Amino acid sequence: MFKNGLGLHFKHRVHELIEDSIKEKNLKYKKNDIVLHHFGSLKDENLISGKTEQYSKIILKQLEEEPNNARYNYQAARMFLGRNDSSNALKYFEKAAKIDPGYKLVFSEIAKIYLQMNDKNRAIEYFKKSIRYNPDNPSPANNLAVVYMSMGKFENAKKILEEQLKKHPENKALKYNYEKSLENLK
Hints:
Largest sheet: none
Mean pLDDT: 86
Number of strands: 0
Structural class: mainly alpha
């Protein structure tokens, strides 16, 4: 929520944001806990399908206009994931990561694709990169620990989870997986 008359405008054609405009004007903002619900996905399935196709065209048009935009490459990757096209999704996630390695959890997205391809070693490599670029987010480390547990490397998982629990002691996923790692070390 923001006041009218500040000269602010939404940017991007898909998943529009106001934050970029706020930053351009050197204004300050803070996030709050207000939840706004968007019920667009509760509409008729044919309408949703048409909207998805329309969004896909818009995403690709944005990307054509700004091929070196991490956001647009990331959106294209998500679009291809939605189409179960892992190959193109991987290509666009990798390009987004090359442009801006800290963009969202892009390395985690790449790791998840490698997991789908059953390449756990590559998944580990990319979850480690995600941890490096997102040190305050416990999700990449938690996912890495789960991969290690799936490989029977419970000591590795335990060590990672212990480190994360020091920073995020109330995180339920970390606690749960930590307990699982301990159970398997007995």
